[in-house]
What we know:
This protein has 2 helices and 8 strands; from the N terminus they run E-H-E-E-E-H-E-E-E-E. It is of the alpha+beta class and 132 residues long. It has a single domain (4-130), classed as 2-Layer Sandwich (STM4215-like), CATH 3.30.2000.10. The radius of gyration is 16 Å and the shape is elongated. 27% of the residues are buried. The model has no long low-confidence stretch (mean pLDDT 91).
Amino acid sequence: MTSAVLFDDAEARTINYLRPLLGVTVVSAFLKPTATTVVTVQRVGGAERNEVVDQPMLVVECWGGSKAIAHDLAQLAWAYLRALAGGAWVDGVWCYRADTVGGPGYQPDPDTGHHRYTFTMQLGLRGQGLYS
Length: 132
């Protein structure tokens, strides 16, 4: 019998990684902003690569009071996540890889028209063994 492996909360780890680097509010969900600058990170899928590596697919939304602010925030967040590609610690979890699934695209909120860029990343995060 192999040991069980627990995969960490990829959303929370990514949020904790990005928050100090971006210097803005970074959360998993929120009510639609008015003219605020905020980043959301949501796991939308992914599967294990093998018995010890999780590959979460994460959608990152970057909101800003102007299209330029949202754009620049998305570029910065994307750069920091791509920098994990060679292997790095993400809030205490080892990240083996970081792959862009879809780069930043302008998608203003359909209900409010607020400026938003979104992109999708897939990370390779090491799990932790559970021993009985």
